[in-house]
Every structure is written in structure tokens, then in C-alpha cells.
Amino acid sequence: MKCSQCGAEFQGKFCPECGAKMENEVPLTSSHIPEEVNSSQQTPPVFNAKLAGKKRTRKPRKPFYKRWWFILIVIILALGVVASLTGNEKEKKRDKIDWSTIILKDVIPEPPSKQGTLFENSDEELRVGLDKVTDDQYNTYLNACVDRGFTVDAEKSSYSYEAYNTDGYSLEIRHISDDLDITLKAPMEMSTISWPTGIAGSLIPAPKSTTGKFIYEHDTNFSVYVGDTSKTDYDEYVTACSDKGFNVDYDKDEKNYRAYNADGYCLSLSYEGNNIMLVSVDEPDEKASDDTKATTETESAIETESESATETEASSSTESPENSGTSESVDGIRPEFKEAMDSYEAFYDDYCDFMIKYKANPTDMKLIAEYSDMMKKLTDMDEKFNAWEGNDLSAEELKYYLDVHSRITQKILDAAS
Question: Contact, 63 vs 35, CB < 8 A?
């Protein structure tokens, strides 16, 4: 039959050329083909791309994964996953702790909160972090610990408390914001020890006590806890080690001493409390040794020049009684203030370096041995730094104080990242 729309001949109900539907099937015989067709009565043909002589083009569509609605769905789902993980982490942090399951529960009072994280629960150590502990609850709990006998070699700050009891258990509690961290350690088991006979052991005198416990012992380095050592014994031992040459670039406070000798070996001493002293000697690396020797030579030269300058100045001027014992400010900053700030910042340089190493290898026994010492220094340095806040600072000193605090904050953030 012939299509009434485009005139194409075909068989079936639909024209293959234009797609028009045939209502009446008319056989393609000469008798049924009209001789003339009035153009005015002809139905307009259906548009057909092929008949138009060109392809019909369609604007390309974006893949579904590039469409805005799909991207929005992905973002919503991702946020949902993050929220779920965060919620799970918070829920994990707020696990309920059953105090009856704590092995050392009879040594200290039961804390005020049951929500938190239990990090260690053994007969040697308890470490737990608790949530939602108010200042009043912390102070009440601290007093309860004191009543339990944790008063030996006690150290207290505005947010922490450390002490032993008469049985040798050590307790450390820290309250920062509404978090309470508790660390309880059983008495250290010690025995009779022999002082190291290697290179490191020969650099310092042997302590009076032969009771102790080695953390590690090698020819060129070692670390050992020494028992039966009073605070007086410790102070005398610090002096003896200094006399043996460990007095280069030293840092010293009431319970800690750190110094190098001329060959770059590093000595760390600390009074741990409860008649226990920690002694550590570390070998130098080649670069540190060269730097230490260079520093020693430079300091000697500076001291010589300084002494000469002092003698010259003393001969040319006389100090007035009014200025005796006082220090003059330089650019509005007192020397003792600047020294304290610089010392504080230098400590945090060491602290951040240590925490980076500790975070990378938390099972390193040498780092574990230094951790307690570093934490004690941290508390002491923070207290000394904050003490200046209550002083009458000049405008220049206040700016220097804030600059140091800002730099240290950035260093801590960098170390934690």
C-alpha cells in the first residue's frame, strides 16, 4: 500500500519512512490509485528526519553521577556516615564502667562518674578516663584519696594530684574541663642489682643503694630505677654526677636533673617519690656530640669575654645603693622575665619533639621511661609560666608573654597533627 502522508509504498499498519498509521489498508493496485490529488486537501506529512535530509541532533545529557541532585545525595549520605561514626565514637567514649570489675578497686575510692573509657585494668596498673566530672566532685574525690593514705611525696596543682601511699601504690589524677583521668600503679617490684660495667655505667658513680629494677641495659646506654633512695640521697647523687662532668647544658629543678658531658653523653636523673630514683644515660649521636663541643667552646669564650667586660665596667663605674640587687629592663622587658619566657618556650620545643616520637612509637621503653619525667616537668613549667600572669607586666612584657603563648600553642597543634 501507499502512505497517504509521504507517498512511500509499504506493507503493514505503519509507514517505515514517516511513521504514519494507516487507518484503511488499501491494496496497491492501479485501480485504487487516484489520478489527481488536490494539494489543498492533502494532510501535512509527519516530520521525519530522514525525509528532511538531515540528522536530528539532541543536546548531550550529563551522566547521572555528574548531576547536581546526585552530588547532593552523595553529600547527604556522607554527612550521615560521618555523623554516625562520630555518634558511635561518643557512645564508645561514654561506655558505662562497672567498678566491681576493677582489679585494684579496693586501693582507691570509687570515682564519682561511671561513664568513660577503661584503658588498663590489671593487677599492676589501672588507667581510666571519666566524663562529666564537676569541680566539686573532683575536689571531693581528691579528699577521699587523701583520706585513703595517698599523702607520701604528694604534689598538687590546680588540676592534678600525685602521691604514694605507705604500701607503695602511686596515684595520679588529673581534672581538665569535665574529664577526670586516673592512673594507679602497684608498687614496683625490685631486687638486688649490679651497677653497669659498660661505657655508660663507668661515666657516673654507682648509687648507695643496690636495690633496683632495670628498664634496659646496654654498653653505651641504660635506664634503671633505684630504690631505697631518699630525697637527700638523690640530691647528693646529682652533685656527684655533676662533679663527674655531667654539667654541660644542664637543666635542674627540685626533682629533675638533665645534663651532658663533654663527649655528648646525656644523663637524666629524677626523684620519682617513695624513695625511688630514676637514672638514665644515653649515648650521643655524632652530630649532637659535635654541637655540644662547639657550644661548650663558645660558652667558654663568651664567659671569658664577659668576665673581662665586667672587670672593666667595675673599674670605671660604681653601683649606687638604690640599684643594688635590681635588674634593669631592656626595651621594657626585665631580664629575669625574658629568661623565664625563653626557658618555657625551649621546654615546649623539647616537649613537642618528644610527643612526636612517643606518638610514633608508644611501646619504646626508653620513651616510656621518659614520659613520666616529661609530664612532671610539664606541670612544673606551666605553673611557673602562669605565675607571671599575676605580676605587674609592662606593655612590652605582656606582648612578649602573649607572643610566647601563641607560638607554643601553634607548636602543640603542629605536633598533634
Answer: no
